[in-house]
Amino acid sequence: MRRHVRRLAGVLPGTRIGRIRWPRRTPIAPFPWHYWWQAHLLDCLVDAQRRSAREGRARAIAATTRSVRIHNAGSWINRYYDDIAWFGLAVQRAGGAAGRWGPSAIEAICTQLGRGWTEDGGGGIWWRRGDNSKNAPANGPAAILLARTGQVSFAAAIVDWMSDTLVDPDTGLVHDGVRVGPDGEICEVDKRIFTYCQGVHLGACVELAQRDGHQRWADRAVAVVDAVRRRLAEPSGVLPGVGGGDGGLFAGITARYLADAAVRRPELSDAAGQLVLASAEAAWDGRLDTALGPVFSADWRAPAPEPRAGVPESDLSVQLGGWMLMEAAARLQRGG
């Protein structure tokens, strides 16, 4: 917060926004501002407030919610369905702390997500308007949000599509996405494996297991945790990093939903919890202490270097990933 969070334009009262790098590069350009990084900043603030409620933090939650809309030209919506799903999740978790803007944000975002579903490629929500790809980073968080706001059948349809289309039958890991041709059929599968694709699939399965109760959701949750443990986190048991930029958030998102699974699903408490705690121990041991607080490494398996221009550790995304991980570990501790 001390390194990255400032008023909009540095001066606008009642606002909070995350600067994407520290130390700052000059001159400072207003774009890109990374809408979805701001969503995870808000989510981390909510985590912290649930752990230890403070009046100042509650004000920061409301200010950050409002500031995203101001910076986004007065709208909650942009062309990326994954961006708005992430922000909707954070606002929904914030509840009344998001201020009077919360309900309108969730309504607008859920309506837009509904418009993103088509039968092209067998179903699923597009990654962004005007594109030909459908992927896990858009569909996973959308399904979690829709389930949490009562649209369980819609969420189930999304996750069934993900399971049928994106889960590798040999490894159990979730591919990034697919591209859809002009005929509405899948023409390419993007088989890249990212940690957060596993995390959002897990999160959606856990949410549906709690709300729907069909056994397939619990079975799929167990399968994806096992795949992450055996194929991504071995031999150290620590979730791997992928550098800075957007990738700085990937492992932290996975840790969030692993902790959620460990607390809410007894069959996952050990396997999912161990991944979170091993990663948190490694990240904390590898932190760099500064006068403005700890700096986390972009790869929790390695020590953090001094943040400077061109180093991933200067990115807000990397530091939010470390913050998410610590909150995930704290949640496990609170949950026993």
Automatic annotation (TrEMBL):
Record protein name field: Glycoside hydrolase
InterPro entries reported in the protein's UniProt record: 6-hairpin_glycosidase_sf, Glyco_hydro_76, MUG_Protein
Source organism of the structure: Pseudonocardia humida
Gene Ontology molecular function terms on file: hydrolase activity
Key word Hydrolase present: yes
Pfam families: Glyco_hydro_76
Keywords associated with the record: Hydrolase
